[in-house]
Write a structure and sequence with these properties.
Radius of gyration: 21 Å
Distance between the termini: 17 Å
Low-confidence stretches: 1-22
Shape: globular
CATH architecture: Beta Barrel
Helix content: under 10%
Structural class: mainly beta
Order of helices and strands: EEHEEEEEEEEEEEEEEEEEEE
Number of helices: 1
Largest sheet: 16 strands, antiparallel, barrel
CATH topology: Porin
Strand order of the largest sheet: 2-4-5-6-7-8-9-11-12-13-14-17-18-19-20-21
Number of domains: 1
CATH class: Mainly Beta
Strand content: over 45%
């Protein structure tokens, strides 16, 4: 999801839709301070051919199986929804080598309140604030209309952090300390319930580079997972994750191919759209054990004309669900996207997209669903 134009990614796709940028609607000057105002307006109309996949502009993959055999409206065929809540507004302030960004959209609640996405300050390669996790790359994302896009990427979310980025060889190296998460499943051990504990920040490192039409990135993650009920019951363990992504743009053809792989033991929420967001679980003896998971993506973008392009993408996530978990726990997701995007005038996009989603749970039950989506996006 990156229909990139300029300074802030205003794309038609879910996540990437904000990584890097569109020409600002207005630039204000006050002395040595420059303020760029940017964002986009987006309307999404979705039609779920089979069971309901949610009423927003993103598919809830958990509903593929959850609503498959439901004897309720959510399990019937044909569901239409429209929303403009993905629309976004941001501000970029620059003065004396310092850059500050504040950006949000209207997914804050059902009342369409403004939701904070990015809020950070950057100076001399030092970033402090909330933005995309450093365990992340946009190389393997296709432009998608669905707000989430393909499953199987690394990262794909924003959180508070302190990061340092520096030039290194043909690219750049970055290292960050990030807000840890308490993604621990305690269902098998009641004494641990509600006692997950953040004691150390997550550590990530990444190297990005490019050469001869090839963009690439590799990254690593180390994290601590811990619980402590302050009553003699506690345990901790360490988790890790690794990722690699590439994008190759063929000269003079309008063709780009891309892909990525992510793997981890205790990786948890750092695997994008994972069926099980937990990085670890507490067994019946009170021991904390990590959970292995992996994901992958493939994509193709083809320029059809000067004003249109086609995108095809596939994503998969798979979790080694612990034997003690219920057979109804989802363990594998697959997503397929095919869309056509038309840009009749500068900064305006009309798009139509077909999405096919598949899910399987620990017990072997499988299900699939289809969504059609039409979107209008105006970047400013």
């Amino acid at each position: 999801m990156k229909i990139v134009k300029g300074v802030v990614v205003t794309a038609a796709s879910a996540l990437a839709l904000a990584a890097a940028g569109a020409a600002s609607a207005a630039t204000l000057h006050a002395g040595n301070t420059t303020v760029d105002i940017y964002g986009y307006v987006k309307l999404d109309a979705t039609y779920d051919v089979n069971q309901s996949l949610g009423s927003e502009s993103y598919v809830n993959l958990g509903d593929v199986l959850a609503n498959k055999d439901a004897k309720t409206a959510a399990g019937t065929n044909g569901h239409f929804n429209m929303t403009a809540r993905q629309s976004r507004l941001g501000f970029k302030i620059q003065n004396d080598g310092v850059t500050a960004v504040i950006e949000g959209d209207f997914y804050g609640s059902s009342t369409n309140t403004y939701r904070l996405r990015h809020a950070y300050v950057e100076w001399n390669g030092i970033l402090a604030g909330q933005t995309w996790t450093n365990f992340n790359s946009w190389n393997d994302w296709i432009d998608s209309l669905d707000f989430d896009g393909q499953a199987g990427h690394a990262g794909g979310f924003r959180q508070p952090q302190i990061r340092y980025t520096t030039a290194a060889g043909m690219g750049k190296f970055s290292i960050s300390l990030e807000q840890p998460g308490t993604d621990i499943n305690t269902a098998s051990y009641a004494a641990a319930a509600g006692n997950a504990k953040n004691q150390l920040p997550d550590l990530t490192v990444k190297y990005e580079g490019s050469a001869n039409g090839l963009d690439y990135a590799v990254a690593g993650l180390v994290r601590q997972l811990k619980y402590d009920n302050n009553n003699g019951s506690s345990d901790s363990t360490n988790g890790y994750g690794v990722m690699g992504s590439v994008r190759y743009s063929m000269a003079n053809s309008g063709t780009s191919i891309m892909g990525g792989l992510t793997y981890g033991d205790g990786i948890g929420r750092y695997l994008y759209l994972t069926p099980l967001g937990d990085g670890a679980y507490v067994d019946s003896s009170g021991n904390l054990k990590t959970i292995k998971a992996w994901g992958g993506t493939l994509g193709l973008t083809q320029k059809v004309s000067a004003t249109s392009d086609v995108n095809l993408g596939y994503g998969i996530t798979k979790v080694d669900v612990p034997s003690s978990f219920s057979n109804t726990q989802d363990e594998k997701y697959q997503t397929v996207f095919l869309n056509y995007l038309w840009h009749p005038v500068s900064n305006l996009t009309y798009g139509v997209e077909w999405q096919h989603d598949m899910a399987r749970n620990k017990g072997g039950t499988t299900g699939s669903a289809n969504r059609l989506q039409f979107s209008t996006i105006y970047n400013f």
